[in-house]
Amino acid sequence: MMLLTLRLRQIIQDYIRDRIFLVALVLILLSMGIAFGVIAASVLEKDQQRELVRFVNQGLHGEDFLQSNIYARQTVVSNLQTVFFLFFMGISVIGVPLALLLIFARGFILGFSTGFLFQTMGYKGILLTLTGILPHNIIVLPALLIMVVAIMDCAAALTKIRFTKKQIAIGEEMIRCAVITLIVILLMVLGGFVQGYVTPFITTWVGRII
Does residue 1 sit within a domain? Predict the structure, then answer.
């Protein structure tokens, strides 16, 4: 078991090292999205802040909740739709910019949410970030980053074949992309269940305390 774990770690390290430029590009876009999200949260007007705080408090202390199984199912379906969207964007090549835009948008949402909670709710915002935003994003965000790197790699190989006529093992590239997609699907399903069951439970519990 330990040998398998070490081998898997080595494969992941080699994959990232060989595509360090793509990884850096995706991380930069994510960081930019987070930064712009934080800035957007900081320039909200007072009325907008009060309205959003009211909405957050209503969500924490209100009774209008979706059942966990319904919410989890909706989240899993949404996550899977995102994975298949990214996969087909990579195959089409021209859809890669949309995949990068998705990463930026995810970063913006994350930055806006955490920035708003920190700025308006203080330590309560920190607790809500740790319980309501962090748990599922620990799984979902890395999975999305890996998926985008994989489809960019695949799209680059397809582009080389189309325009340079270089001999590239496209079958190997497609298989690698498909395997990564399957792994990401598993992670996104897991993240959906965490977001549907674990996150609401912890957030509700924290809401009672604060």
Answer: no
Which domain covers residue 140, as residue numbers? Answer: 20-58+70-209
Q: SS in 3 state form for the chain?
A: CHHHHHHHHHHHHHHHHHCHHHHHHHHHHHHHHHHHHHHHHHCCCHHHHHHHHHHHHHHHHCCCCCCHHHHHHHHHHHHHHHHHHHHHHHHHCCCHHHHHHHHHHHHHHHHHHHHHHHHHHCHHHHHHHHHHHHHHHHHHHHHHHHHHHHHHHHHHHHHHHHHHCCCCCHHHHHHHHHHHHHHHHHHHHHHHHHHHHHHHHHHHHHHHHC
In which band, very low, low, confident or very high, does the pLDDT at 59 lie, cut at 50, 70 and 90?
Answer: low
pTM over 0.90: no
Distance CA 172, CA 178 (A): 10
Q: Is 3 contained in some domain?
A: no
Could you give the dihedral angle defined by the CA atoms of residues 72, 121, 29 and 177, in that order, rounded to the nearest 10 degrees?
A: -20
Total domain count, the chain: 1
Alpha-carbon distances, residue 177 vs 37, 51, 61, 180, 182 (angstroms): 31, 44, 44, 5, 9
Domain membership of residue 7 (yes or no) is: no
Summarize pLDDT for 72-130 with one digit per residue, the tens: 889 999 999 999 999 888 888 788 899 999 999 999 999 999 999 888 888 888 888 88
